[in-house]
């Protein structure tokens, strides 16, 4: 098993056997391999690969556990590896895709379904499906509509998908479009018997897509079957991997994902970059922690104390934030300059870029003295994934130094999403992530994922709890700051009305 550039293919493992086809015709390896042919593999017929033995055809992506935007050395950004998955309706494409994801067992694998891009009825041709595939391939953020088969329309909310190491693009027509086909690094087809597909479709469309039996049969005979013959069958020979005809009795699903997709597992190799969640993070070259002077320690003591009243929780964090931002500014470029003192003498000073050339981007709110942007990211409580809800960045941000402000960073999921957003807006990695408190885990992830982003904080807590919150931690900063945690203020009701709400954050700087 070795990596050869230019190949797509699969590794033979366990009882899996393969049938090879070269560009010029069948070259069966059946006789060389034990067991029935379950997976058929076709290799790219480039001159480089022609004479090689199929068993060595393994295309491996080394991610080293890094997110998609950097190669395994943390240097250049790399393209996503795109697996095209074609097959007749109800052949099992989605099921197979999910099995691949399970078997790969690495982050940053995205399943993109052509179903998402059905035109909305009545016809509205407002979305090109070339676009998301290409953007994802190049590691860019994409917005994906969510198709609803019961209403034949799109749901209100679109899904935000970030760059990926691997994109699995599945759909009945996914091989029929030449341009889309060219994006694929590997083409796989789910080849399931038409009777089985028909039965599965009947069951699925009636139970999941709100259809009736007559309608499904009619649609199948009139449209689905001819479409298969026209748009899918002719392209089966293009596939690098054919997932073979299996029925319910011989269900692939009864096999473990590793057994089922071990040939594909070798495509992505990411070594874990973290030890146990509470282990000390390795030192990060980009981390700059504010010196723990007595007043910094004192401010932490106040804001971490559960006895601290809400009014104090508004006042003291502001002091700490000011120190944090001053600290962050020391890492931005400045120019030497000379000024005249009132005594008429020259003073050799330095002028920072403050006020020009710097954009503050807050994940919570805006800051005042510099141009500002806002990003609202919230964790989806069902999936546990961060979701981008709102993004407003000033024009010309790509030329600026950006201080990205997140009150606390624990798992770093939101901060990483925000950094990714900035990079998508062509901010040239001149980013400083400033946070009052960070968990070692979050520092590590950001530093590893974005080796050029400076990380500025006033303290790093080594541990995280089961919810990936920093320990000893600070609690939910937003809730405490905006008084939504139920903590009392120590003020009378009248005084309480006067107290700062959301806009307070704008005054901090
Ligand atoms: N190997 C299998 N054995 C039994 N049922 C399956 C198998 N693969 C898929 N199914 C079922 O068939 C239906 C269609 O599968 P799905 O993966 O959605 O197909 P596609 O995405 O190709 O339309 C689903 O209800 C799924 O549970
Ligand atoms: N409103 C719609 C849109 C599409 N279809 C059918 O779905 C099939 C593709 O989905 P699979 O998950 O089965 O690949 C395709 O055959 C379309 O005819 C539909 O019925 N209603």
Automatic annotation (TrEMBL):
<keyword id="KW-0418">Kinase</keyword>
<dbReference type="GO" id="GO:0044206">
    <property type="term" value="P:UMP salvage"/>
</dbReference>
<dbReference type="InterPro" id="IPR029057">
    <property type="entry name" value="PRTase-like"/>
</dbReference>
<keyword id="KW-0808">Transferase</keyword>
<dbReference type="Pfam" id="PF00485">
    <property type="entry name" value="PRK"/>
</dbReference>
<feature type="compositionally biased region" description="Polar residues">
    <location>
        <begin position="500"/>
        <end position="509"/>
    </location>
</feature>
<dbReference type="InterPro" id="IPR000836">
    <property type="entry name" value="PRTase_dom"/>
</dbReference>
<dbReference type="GO" id="GO:0004849">
    <property type="term" value="F:uridine kinase activity"/>
</dbReference>
<feature type="domain" description="Phosphoribosyltransferase">
    <location>
        <begin position="292"/>
        <end position="484"/>
    </location>
</feature>
<dbReference type="InterPro" id="IPR006083">
    <property type="entry name" value="PRK/URK"/>
</dbReference>
<dbReference type="InterPro" id="IPR000764">
    <property type="entry name" value="Uridine_kinase-like"/>
</dbReference>
<dbReference type="GO" id="GO:0005524">
    <property type="term" value="F:ATP binding"/>
</dbReference>
<comment type="similarity">
    <text>Belongs to the uridine kinase family.</text>
</comment>
<feature type="domain" description="Phosphoribulokinase/uridine kinase">
    <location>
        <begin position="135"/>
        <end position="249"/>
    </location>
</feature>
<dbReference type="Pfam" id="PF14681">
    <property type="entry name" value="UPRTase"/>
</dbReference>
<comment type="pathway">
    <text>Pyrimidine metabolism; UMP biosynthesis via salvage pathway; UMP from uridine: step 1/1.</text>
</comment>
<feature type="domain" description="Phosphoribulokinase/uridine kinase">
    <location>
        <begin position="82"/>
        <end position="120"/>
    </location>
</feature>
<dbReference type="InterPro" id="IPR027417">
    <property type="entry name" value="P-loop_NTPase"/>
</dbReference>
<feature type="region of interest" description="Disordered">
    <location>
        <begin position="488"/>
        <end position="509"/>
    </location>
</feature>
<keyword id="KW-0547">Nucleotide-binding</keyword>
<protein>
    <recommendedName>
        <fullName>uridine/cytidine kinase</fullName>
        <ecNumber>2.7.1.48</ecNumber>
    </recommendedName>
</protein>
<keyword id="KW-0067">ATP-binding</keyword>
């Amino acid at each position: 098993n070795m990596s050869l550039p230019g190949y797509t293919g699969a590794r033979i493992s366990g009882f899996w056997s393969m049938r090879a086809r070269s560009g010029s015709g069948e070259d069966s390896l059946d006789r060389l391999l034990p067991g029935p042919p379950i997976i058929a593999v076709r290799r790219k017929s480039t001159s480089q690969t022609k004479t090689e033995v199929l068993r060595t055809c393994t295309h491996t992506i080394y991610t080293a556990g890094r997110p998609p935007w950097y190669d395994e050395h943390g240097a250049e950004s790399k393209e996503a590896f795109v697996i095209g998955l074609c097959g007749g309706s109800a052949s099992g494409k989605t099921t197979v895709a999910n099995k691949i994801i399970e078997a790969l067992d690495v982050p940053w694998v995205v399943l993109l379904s052509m179903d998402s891009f059905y035109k909305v009825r009545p016809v509205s041709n407002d979305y090109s499906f070339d676009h998301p595939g290409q953007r994802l391939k190049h590691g860019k953020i994409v917005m994906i509509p969510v198709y609803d088969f019961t209403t034949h329309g799109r749901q209100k909310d679109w899904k935000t998908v970030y760059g990926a190491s691997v994109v699995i693009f599945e759909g009945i027509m996914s091989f029929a479009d030449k341009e889309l086909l060219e994006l694929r690094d590997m083409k796989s087809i789910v080849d399931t018997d038409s009777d089985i597909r028909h039965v599965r479709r009947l069951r699925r469309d009636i139970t999941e897509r709100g259809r009736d039996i007559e309608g499904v049969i009619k649609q199948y005979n009139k449209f689905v079957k001819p479409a298969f013959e026209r748009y899918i069958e002719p392209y089966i020979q293009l596939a690098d991997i054919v997932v073979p005809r299996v029925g319910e009795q011989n269900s692939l699903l009864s096999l473990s994902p590793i057994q089922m997709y071990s040939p594909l597992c070798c495509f992505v190799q990411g070594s874990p970059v973290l030890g146990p969640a509470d282990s000390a993070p390795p030192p990060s070259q980009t981390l700059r922690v504010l010196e723990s002077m007595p007043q910094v320690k004192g401010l932490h003591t106040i804001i971490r104390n559960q006895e601290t009243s809400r009014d104090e929780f508004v006042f003291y964090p502001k002091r700490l934030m000011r120190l944090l931002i001053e600290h962050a500014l020391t890492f931005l470029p400045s120019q030497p300059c000379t000024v005249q003192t009132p005594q008429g003498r020259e003073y050799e000073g330095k002028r920072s870029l403050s006020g020009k050339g710097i954009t503050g981007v807050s994940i919570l709110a805006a800051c005042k003295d510099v141009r500002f942007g806002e990003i609202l990211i919230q964790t989806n409580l069902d999936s546990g994934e961060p979701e981008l809800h709102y993004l407003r960045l000033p024009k010309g941000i790509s030329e600026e130094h950006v201080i990205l402000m997140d009150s606390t960073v624990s798992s770093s999921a939101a901060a990483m999403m925000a950094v990714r957003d900035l990079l998508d807006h062509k901010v040239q990695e001149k980013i400083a992530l400033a946070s009052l408190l960070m968990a070692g885990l979050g520092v590590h992830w950001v530093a590893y994922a974005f080796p050029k982003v400076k990380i500025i904080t006033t303290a790093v807590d080594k541990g995280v709890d089961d919810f990936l919150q920093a320990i000893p931690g600070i609690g939910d900063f937003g809730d405490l700051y905006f008084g939504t945690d139920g903590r009392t203020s120590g003020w009378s009701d009248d005084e309480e009305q006067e107290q700062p709400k959301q806009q307070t954050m704008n005054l901090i700087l």
